[in-house]
Amino acid sequence: MAGISLRGIAKSFRDTPVLQGVSLDIAAGEFLTLVGPSGCGKTTILRILAGLETQDAGDVVIGGTLVDDLPPKARDIAMVFQSYALYPYMTVAENIGLPLEMRRLSAAQRLPLVGRIMPGAATTRAGIAADVTAVAEGLGIGHLLARRPAQLSGGQRQRVALARAMVRRPKAFLMDEPLSNLDAKMRVQARTEISELHRSLGTTFVYVTHDQAEAMTMSDRVAVMMGGRLMQVASPQVIYDDPQDLAVATFIGTPEINTLPARIEADGGLSVLGARWPVAVTTPAGAQATVAVRPEVLLPAGRGEAAIRIAGTVRHVEMLGAETLVHLRVAGAEKPVVARVEPAVGARFRPGDEAAFTVAPGRVMVFAADGR
Ligand code: ATP
Fold it and tell me: Is the dihedral of CA 361, 365, 370, 372 positive or negative?
C-alpha cells in the first residue's frame, strides 16, 4: 500500500499540450477516480504513473520514492486495461500466474532486479499455483482456471485481468475503464465488486472512467479533469453539491443540471427570467451570471407563495420506473428545464399543460460569467 503524488506533471504530444501542470496527492489506501470527457488526459496520467509514458515536466512519487527514472516493472504497481490484454492461447490459470511465472524464470536466471520488483509473492511452481487458486477463488472464478479467455463472458474476463493484477500483490492498482466492455447490468454489479475488492485489499486504487456514475459510486475522492487540467478534487458528494465551476456542475449529474441565464442587478440582487430570486451572490453588479439547479430539487408548485418559481409548458414526460422526468419549456431558457419527481407526482403532468416548480433558495447555485 502506497500513496502516490503527481507534482506539476506536464505532457505534450507533437506540440499539443495534453496535461498542463497536474498536481495531485493520493493517500495510501485511497480509491481515487479520474473522471472527465474523452480526450481530457486521464489515460495519459495513468500511463505516466505506470511508467509507460514519460512526462515532459514534473515528478511522480510512489510510496515516498521518486520513480521518474524507474521502468514500469520496478514501480510495483499493477495496471488493468479496458481490453484486459489476456493471452488467448493460455488458460485462465496461466494468464493469472504469468507475472509470478515471469518472476520465477528471471529469478532462475539470477536477474538482479527481481527481488526488489515483487517482494512477498510466490517463487516456486507450487507456490504460484496456490496463489493463483487463492486469488481466483476470492474473485469467484476458481472453477474457470482450465478455460481459455475465448470461453469466458466479459465479466469473467474482467475478473481474470483483475486476478492477474492482484496476484503480484502490487502497492497500487491503476485501472483504465475496466468495465467499459461489460453490459449495463454487469457494470453495476462489477462496480460493487470492485468497491468490495478495494475495501478488502486496502490498496491504493487509481481508477479512470468517463462514466460519472462509476466515479461517484466507487470513489473516496473524484478528480474531475477537463482539457488536461484538474478542475476539482473532492468527495463525490462535494463534487455534486458544491461544484467549483459550471463545467464541473454540468459534467456531473444525470440528467444534466438545469441552467438559466441570470443578471446581477445594481442593488446586488439576482434576476432570473425577469423575476427576483432571493439568493445571496458575490458576483459584482451588472454582471451576467448563470444559475444552476439540479433536477431533483425542483418541486411541483403548490397554491401558496413560493420564493422561487419556474413556470412553463410541459413538453415531455419521461417515465423511468423509479422516477419520472418532467421536461418543461420555459420562456428565456435555452434548453428545457427538467424536474426529477416521484412517479405518482409525475403522473399529474401531461404534455401541453402549463406547470410550475419551486426551488428552495439554498439549492440554487450561481456561477459568474467565467463559470466560477
Ligand atoms: P478517453 O476517455 O477517450 O480514453 P482520455 O481522457 O483518457 O480519453 P488520453 O487518452 O489521455 O485521454 O488522451 C489525451 C489526448 O492526448 C487526446 O487528445 C489523445 O488523442 C492524445 N494522445 C494520447 N496519446 C497520444 C500519443 N501517443 N500520440 C499522440 N497523441 C496522443
Answer: positive
Query: Please, is 122 exposed, middle or buried when counting C-beta atoms within 10 Å of its C-beta (0-12, 13-18, 19+)?
Result: buried
The C-alpha cell of 125 is what? Answer: 511452481
ipTM over 0.85? The verdict is yes
- CB-based contact 1:204 (threshold 8 Å): yes
Ligand 1 pocket, residue 43 CB under 6 Å: yes
- What's the grid cell of residue 355? 406547470
Q: Which atom of ligand 1 is closest in space to residue 44's alpha carbon?
A: 11
Closest Cα to atom 30 of ligand 1 = 13
State the distance from the centre of ligand 1 to the C-alpha of 35, rounded, in angstroms: 14
Rounded to two decimals, the pTM is 0.86
Please name each of the domains of the chain with its CATH number.
Answer: 4-246 (3.40.50.300), 255-368 (2.40.50.140)
Per-residue pLDDT tens for 251-273? 999 999 999 999 988 888 899 98
- Using a 6 Å cutoff on CB, does residue 47 contact ligand 1? no
Backbone angles phi, psi at 348, to 5 degrees: -75, -15
